Amino acid sequence: MKAGKRSCPLCREEVLATATWCKHCGRKLPDPAGLNGRSRTVTYAIVPDGPMFGILLNGEVMIHGLKLENAQEIVSILNSMN
Ligand SMILES: [Zn+2]
C-alpha cells in the first residue's frame, strides 16, 4: 500500500489515510490510527440493528445493516487498529 493510503475496512478499497468517509462505499471510516498522536482506548461492539446488526462506538451506532458475520469481522479489524 502506498504511503498516505489505507484500506477501507468495509469494502477493502484504497482511501486516503486521513479520509473520514470511504469514497467507494460511502461508509464512515474509523479514525486513522495515530492521526492525533495520542493513544486512545476505543472499543467497538456489535449491537442488534433491526433485523440486522450494527457496530456501536461510544454509545452511537456508527455502521448499520450488517450481517452478524460481517459485523464480527469488522469489529475485530477495528479493535485491532487501536
Ligand atoms: Zn469502503
Defining key terms:
82 residues; alpha+beta; three-stranded antiparallel β-sheet; two-stranded antiparallel ribbon; 1 helix; binds zinc ion
Could you characterize the architecture of this molecule?
Helices cover 16% and strands 30% of the residues. With 82 residues, it is an alpha+beta fold. The protein has one domain. The strands form two sheets. A three-stranded antiparallel sheet has the order 3-4-5, covered by helices on one side. It has a two-stranded antiparallel ribbon with strand order 1-2. It is globular and about 35 Å long. The chain binds zinc ion. Residues 8, 10-11, 13, 22, 24-25, 27 line the site of zinc ion (ZN).
Helix count? 1
**Number of β-strand runs:** 5
Radius of gyration: 13 Å
Spans of at least 5 consecutive residues with low confidence: none
**Strand arrangement in the largest pleated sheet:** 3-4-5
Helix content: 10-25%
Domain module count: 1
**How widely separated are the two ends?**
20 Å
How much of the polypeptide forms β-strand, as a percent range? 25-35%
Order of helices and strands: EEEEEH
- Mean residue pLDDT: 84
Largest sheet: 3 strands, antiparallel
What form results from the Cα inertia axes?
globular
Bound molecules: zinc ion
Q: Structural class of the helix and strand makeup?
A: alpha+beta
